[in-house]
Amino acid sequence: MNASNSINHPIRCGREICGDLTQAERREWWLSNGLSGYAAGTIAESLTRRYHGLLVAPLHPPLGRVLLLAKADATLTIDGRDWPLFTNRWADGAIEPAGFTHLESFHLDGRLPVWHYRIGDIVVEKRIWMEQGKNCTRIAWRCLSNPMHRSLSLRVALLINARDHHAVSGAEHIHPVIEADQSRLSIVYEDGNILHLCAEGGEMIRDSVWIEHFDLPLERQRGLEDRDAHLRAGYALFEFNGKNYCGVTASANERIETPLALSLQGMQACEQALISRAEKYVPALRDAPDWIRQLVLAADSFLFARPLPGVPDGQSVIAGYPWFGDWGRDTMIALPGLTLATGRYDSARRILQTFARFVDHGMLPNLFPGAGEKPDYNTVDAALWYIEAWRAYVDASGDSDALHDVFPVLESMIAAHLKGMRYGIVVDAEDGLLRAGEPGVQLTWMDAKVGDWVVTPRIGKPVEINALWYNALCIMADFATAMGGDADASPYQTLASHAASSFNKFIRSDGMGLLDVIDGPNDSNSSDSSDRSDGSDGSDDSIRPNQILAVSLPHSPLDRETQQHVVSICGRELLTSYGMRSLAPGQAGYQGHYGGGVLQRDGGYHQGTVWGWLSGHYALAEYRVTGDAALALSRLEPMADHLNDAALGTISEIFDGDPPHTPRGAPAQAWSVACTLEAWWRLSKQADKNG
Fold first, then answer.
1. CB-based burial of residue 372 (10 Å sphere; 0-12 exposed, 13-18 middle, 19+ buried)?
2. pLDDT (tens digit per residue) in 116-136
3. Residues 6 or more apart whose Cβ sits within 8 Å of residue 226
4. How many Cα atoms within 13 Å fall on the side-chain side of residue 531?
5. What are the residue ranges of helices labelled H in 68-140?
6. How far apart, in whole angstroms, are the C-alpha atoms of residue 347 and residue 335?
7. pLDDT in tens, 179-225
8. What is the DSSP letter of 596?
9. Which of 473, 530, 599, 636 is the most buried (most CB within 10 A)?
10. Which candidate, 260, 588, 308, 614, places its Cα nearest to that of 456?
């Protein structure tokens, strides 16, 4: 079996990183299975998060994810001497064993993590992958070098659990029945779920010992519980001869019989097919740099099945790993980059049709429901991003039939904004701008809330909401025109013209770009205005990145000179290597470092923290005002370096506002990947046109 790679120069770390525990733990690998399940860990193979594990499966779909297999700790025996090929952290500060010291290299084969351990002239390879569309993880080892034909064997300790992936556990919190049968272990849980463990090329030995006091330093940094315990259910034992893979298959509630070799070949073929399809439908990708091709693979990790009555092939988007589900706003912002920039028009259509089922009183859910739950509609912009996502899809695919089907839904959404919706969302008849918000509710993407404290309430008329509103009206006018006699474009054109003429109210008199919010509460004693640096007229003059959308979106209400001012201010005050700060340094409330407990983290979430998804919007806005596609593309290039840090091969959610802009938040974030890909795709097309 030959390992293949669809990326010419894969993500790779040598001994200088692998042998340094701090660096090796900082770098993580993440896999997904297309069902919202995942596997994740550090390249040191130590646990640093409660979310690290080899099989986290949605046993209560779509989002009820449970940690089933925590670790598969391998010990290599060479001529009777044991060499641990894994690392553990303990509550007393001990690092035992320190198997990372034997790690010669780590790389990604596409998305698949690959370790090479060297002990003298012995080299052992380890690989992990997930079966797509199944709650199944494969862990495989093979010997790459044994020139003196020494006697080798491998003993793999299998640590299991059955806890919510957001939780931690103590000993004895579960009491499964463990059944052993030659090469298999079956762990039967009290709720009826079964974890199947199969040793291909070896045998299974039953065990039942709780291993306690695992230390989770990243949880401690987040102000959360930092101790965990797992049950060692047994061992897989292998005679380690030849270069064929042996290993463990872990699957939930069904036995997976496909041999390791065929499974790996299938996964590698799947990776190559993603690249080939993207190149077929997106010609710019044929000459794309390797880091962009890596993001094409990363994009697939966020798409997952969400079947609905009438839409059995429904799809949605995991907003970020590990702790997010699918969010309306995030999904619509990410959709063009995850699907259209990668040639996946069918997925784009299915996602859009899936979400159409959840439109209610003109609104799209912010938080999508889990099993038996109701959707939460506390968002003002998800519906407007939904209309923009439809524009992007129709432009890319030319799917007029889908447009005809959805147009009545989109019409009803605009009508609801005019009539008035939840949380004070309504168009002001006097100026044609969209007002939103009421005390105690967060409606924009700057939605941090701690208890009753809404950190950035932004009640009134937020700048990006009205940029999206104007953009949506222009799109609806274009859609109505495309519909021919079936729709009338003039009402949307009139509304757009009214909003555009009023948008000048956002322009600051001091030349510092646009106001962040206008017509907000002007009561200085109001708890919802305490975090604004605003004037008595209810305007918020905080320098924030929201104004960039008034330039980056396809339809801008601003004249060219004002667009240039906005980009200039944002570039000077907010732009960093990895995105845009959420608040300019020097502004009241600015926090240059993101960290601490829940209160500290959420309090600083939008107070200076850099957001990766805004990097693409800045690049598109800069191109709009300069016409220089090469310059705009250069704004994205630092992300290539970031792919070698944090969650390898993907892009983090946020970064510190202060240099060196350390990655924070969710290690893998959909809209960070998507907006970078979308901007690169659109700008590359412009660069090709310009020669």
1. exposed
2. 999 999 999 999 999 999 999
3. 168, 215, 216, 217, 219, 220
4. 19
5. none
6. 9
7. 999 999 999 999 999 999 999 999 999 999 999 999 999 999 999 99
8. S
9. 473
10. 588
53, 30 Cβ separation under 8 angstroms: no
Residue type, 538: G
Cα separation, 130 vs 111, whole angstroms: 10
Distances (CA, A) of 407 to 446, 481, 541: 29, 12, 37
Tokens 């019409």 locate to 411
Q: Which are the contacts of 350, defined by CB distance < 8 A and separation ≥ 6?
A: 311, 313, 314, 315
Q: How far apart are CA 632 and CA 645, in angstroms?
A: 23
Question: Where along the chain do the CATH 2.70.98 domains lie?
Answer: 12-270
| Bond prior to 307 in cis (omega within 30° of 0) | no
Q: What is the 3-state secondary structure (H, E, C) of 528-591?
A: HHCCCCECCCCCECCCCHHHHHHHHCCCCCCCHHHHHHHHHHHHHHCEECCEEECCCCCCCCCC
What is d(CA 122, CA 83) in angstroms, rounded to the nearest whole number? 11
Residue pointed to by tokens 């739950």: 373
Category of 625 on φ-ψ map: left (φ > 0), alpha (ψ -120 to 50) or beta? alpha
Q: Would you tell me the crossing angle of helices 400-419 and 345-356 to the nearest 10 degrees?
A: 40
What pTM value is reported for the model? 0.95
Q: Cβ atoms within 10 A of the Cβ of 426, count?
A: 15
